[in-house]
């Protein structure tokens, strides 16, 4: 099945050797290569004023999508209470381990991959703060774009925390290998091709938040089917945060389409041409140079995140942003519109062909260090 994933998860990576020096030598053996980074600051500087002028709009339309801390769930709400008596705490941990005991190893591969993706949060806050016109200029700026980014990060921070602790208590995964992967990944960063350009950045985050909503929703479903309703609730609760965040980023792009339809339409097309790369695409555990492809293949096989989901998300965004209906575009804008609006059927066709090809291939497996080097079909 791995070949079928090339479409959505791992677009061909062009080696860019000069960028290798960005990795401290101790952090690399043979992790994935970077692919985009030649273009920077692609938004014309005069467009920065658009984001300044949208500050009041962001205050009234985006900041309210955050949840006040006292109304937010916290990881400890879902975990055994360590301040309980020894017996009570042990019973709760035993119950947790009993619930997870029937979930298959391949489920843990996907859940670990999702957790690692969440845990590389420092990278995502860094990425958003590369964007011209919306970055947090001081670290505590009261500009609404910066306030959103910090509070979004704070909300997101609970996701990796909760999943990591749950995985630790389950005893089903090799935490040391999981932790190494997180360390490698945060050291490597990410390369989404957003070029310091907030148009590209917000298209990327719109897509990405929906992708995580879909994927956590599916790990919730599988946990329920596998006999762990608490884990199902955990993944479902995380998914609903992602949905709220998706809503914010989608609204921002919707607003950009209103104030600068050509600029926003070409940004959507640009990101889709590059293909949306998953944020953890540089993941590495010190052993498997194809770790991300292998993880993606298992996610595809289990139906947690698939090439069809990729096309579904694109279609959802086309609909949500009413991209087909936007009129009065320039030549460049119209070309972008035509490209984006015709893309989903093409992706599905390519995917069907990839599935057909994969059916003819011998089934293959990969060893995952996260689950003590056990083999899983990919
Ligand atoms: Fe998240
Ligand atoms: Fe998210």
Automatic annotation (TrEMBL):
Reported cofactor(s): Fe cation; Fe(2+)
Stored CDD domains: Acyl_ACP_Desat
Subcellular location: Plastid, Chloroplast
Signal peptide residue numbers: none
Keywords annotated in UniProt: Chloroplast, Fatty acid biosynthesis, Fatty acid metabolism, Iron, Lipid biosynthesis, Lipid metabolism, Metal-binding, Oxidoreductase, Plastid, Transit peptide
Chain sites annotated for binding Fe cation 1: 118, 156, 159, 242
Gene Ontology biological process terms in this record: fatty acid biosynthetic process
One cellular component term from this protein's GO annotations in UniProt: chloroplast stroma
Pfam families: FA_desaturase_2 (PF03405)
Binding-site residues for Fe cation 2, renumbered to this chain: 156, 209, 242, 245
Domain of life where this protein originates: Eukaryota
InterPro entries for this protein: FADS-2_CS, Fatty_acid_desaturase-2, Ferritin-like_SF, RNR-like
Annotated cofactor note: Binds 2 iron ions per subunit.
EC number: 1.14.19.-
Function: Introduction of a cis double bond between carbons of the acyl chain.
Self-association state and partner proteins as the record states: Homodimer.
Family according to the record: Belongs to the fatty acid desaturase type 2 family.
Protein name: Acyl-[acyl-carrier-protein] desaturase
Organism for this UniProt entry: Tagetes erecta (African marigold)
């Amino acid at each position: 099945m791995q070949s079928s994933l090339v479409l959505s998860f791992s677009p061909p990576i062009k080696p860019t050797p000069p960028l290798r020096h960005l990795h401290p030598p101790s952090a690399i053996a043979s992790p994935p290569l970077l692919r985009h980074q030649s273009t920077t600051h692609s938004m014309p500087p005069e467009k920065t004023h658009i984001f300044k002028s949208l500050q009041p709009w962001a205050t009234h339309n985006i900041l309210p999508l955050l949840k006040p801390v006292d109304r937010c769930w916290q990881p400890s709400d879902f975990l055994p209470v360590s301040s309980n008596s020894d017996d009570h705490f042990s019973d709760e941990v035993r119950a947790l381990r009993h619930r997870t005991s029937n979930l298959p190893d391949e489920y843990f591969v996907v859940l670990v991959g999702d957790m690692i993706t969440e845990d590389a949060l420092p990278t995502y806050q860094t990425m958003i703060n590369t964007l011209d016109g919306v970055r947090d200029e001081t670290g505590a700026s009261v500009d609404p774009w910066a306030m959103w980014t910090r509070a979004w990060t704070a909300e997101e921070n609970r996701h990796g925390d909760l999943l990591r602790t749950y995985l630790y208590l389950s005893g089903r995964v090799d935490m040391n290998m999981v932790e190494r992967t997180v360390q490698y990944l945060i050291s490597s960063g990410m390369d989404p091709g957003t070029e310091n350009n907030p148009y590209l950045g917000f298209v990327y985050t719109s897509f990405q938040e929906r992708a995580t909503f879909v994927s956590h929703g599916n790990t919730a479903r599988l946990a329920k089917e596998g006999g762990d309703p608490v884990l199902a609730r955990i993944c479902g609760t995380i998914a609903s945060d992602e949905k709220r965040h998706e809503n914010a980023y989608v609204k921002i792009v919707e607003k950009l389409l209103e104030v600068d339809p050509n600029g926003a339409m070409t940004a959507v097309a640009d990101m889709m041409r590059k293909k949306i790369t998953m944020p953890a695409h540089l993941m590495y555990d010190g052993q498997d140079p194809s770790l991300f492809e292998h993880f993606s293949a298992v996610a595809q096989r289990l139906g947690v995140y698939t090439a069809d989901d990729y096309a579904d998300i694109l279609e959802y965004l086309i609909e949500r942003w009413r991209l087909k209906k936007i009129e009065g575009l320039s030549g460049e804008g119209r070309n972008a519109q035509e490209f984006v609006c015709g893309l989903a059927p093409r992706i599905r066709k390519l995917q069907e062909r990839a599935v057909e090809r994969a059916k003819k291939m011998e089934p293959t497996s990969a060893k995952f260090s996260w689950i003590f080097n056990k083999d899983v079909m990919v």
